[in-house]
Write a structure and sequence with these properties.
- It is a single chain.
- By secondary structure, the chain is mainly alpha-helical.
- The protein has a single domain, classed as Farnesyl Diphosphate Synthase.
- Helix content is 69%, strand content 1%.
- It contains 15 helices and two strands.
- The protein has helices at 6-31, 40-50, 57-68, 77-94, 111-114, 117-137, 145-159, 164-174, 181-205, 212-239, 242-245, 251-254, 260-264, 266-282, 292-301, and strands at residues 104-105, 108-109.
- It has a two-stranded antiparallel ribbon with strand order 1-2.
- A hairpin with a 2-residue loop joins strand 1 and strand 2 (108-109).
- The mean pLDDT is 91.
């Protein structure tokens, strides 16, 4: 069977993106506490950090993977919201003065700038715990208890010291140091890639078609996609536009952080991103046209400007 054209994949992704964004925004709004409910300042900060911003790539992966395997979107709202809550919490904490000390996020003041540092820390803590409440309690998921437990285990592994938090620790320890390519890859597989891989798996775990061999291939797709996403982020930090990105460009260089362009140069970094996307697409062989959004997303990851 011939591979779908790039234009067809781009169209599939472009049509799905606003639909998925609207779904997860609605789910997040439903699960987040009302801003007027005490403690109001904390709840307001949680909503500020989560709603009305961001590309929602991780929820999109949940929806696109689940639908590729025959799941209805309503059963995916909970996992999509949960992974975005974890992502939002991580951004709040990454932006703190003790971490990256960023002033802008998604074109607005970072949470600790809009509120204060203590409130931002607590908002991140509360967003993290809310994610697991969603996975444990969302009735619309129609998931068996053992499936919920596997989803919770998948997300905790991806978010903790063996995943995203561990990657952030590696990142902080690497400032000012020259890393080898395998060391840089390991750092990003944890920091960025773990949650992207988890997003794919969360979308697949509730599907009857998700036998272990298919889960392995989807996991490889997520691994390649997560690393390609980070390579492109590194490239955009060099040549992107602050207004388009919604955050300051050149921050990695100012902080003397190791990046792919710094390690290998811009053109080799672009070539690596393309290779990773090709590998991700190969992992989807055997899935029918329902997986075209996943294919289009892989192409988007290295063509985006924000």
């Amino acid at each position: 069977m011939p591979s779908p054209s790039t234009s067809k994949l781009t169209e599939a992704f472009s049509q799905a993106l606003p639909r998925y964004q609207a779904r997860v925004e609605k789910a997040l709004d439903r699960w987040l506490p009302d801003a007027h409910r005490p403690p109001a300042r904390l709840h307001e900060a949680m909503r500020y950090a989560t709603l009305q911003g961001g590309k929602r790539i991780r929820p999109l992966l949940v929806y696109a993977t689940g639908e590729a395997l025959g799941l209805q979107p309503a059963r995916l709202d909970g996992p999509a919201a949960a992974v975005e809550l974890i992502h939002a919490y991580s951004l709040v904490h990454d932006d703190l003065p003790a971490m990256d000390d960023d002033a802008l996020r998604r074109g607005r003041p970072t949470c600790h700038r809009a509120y204060d540092e203590a409130t931002a820390i607590l908002a991140g803590d509360a967003l993290q715990t809310l994610a697991f409440r969603v996975l444990a309690g969302d009735a619309a998921m129609e998931a068996a208890p053992e499936t919920r437990l596997r989803m919770i285990a998948t997300l905790t592994e991806a978010a903790g010291s063996r995943g995203m938090v561990g990657g952030q620790a590696m990142d902080l320890a690497a400032v000012g140091r020259a890393l080898s390519e395998p060391e840089l890859e390991a750092m990003h597989i944890h920091k960025t890639g773990a949650l992207i891989r988890a997003s794919v798996l969360l979308g697949a775990l509730g599907a009857t078609e998700a036998e272990e061999r298919r889960l392995e291939r989807l996991d490889h797709y997520g691994k390649c996609l997560g690393l390609a996403f980070q390579v492109q982020d590194d490239i955009l930090d060099v040549e992107g536009d602050t207004e388009a990105l919604g955050k300051q460009c050149g921050a990695d260089a100012r902080l003397n952080k190791p990046t792919y362009p710094a390690l290998m140069g811009l053109e080799p970094a672009r070539a690596l991103a393309r290779e990773l996307v090709d590998d991700a697409l190969e992992s989807l062989a055997g899935l029918d046209s329902r997986a075209d959004v996943l294919r289009g997303l892989a192409r988007y990851v290295i063509s985006r400007d924000s």
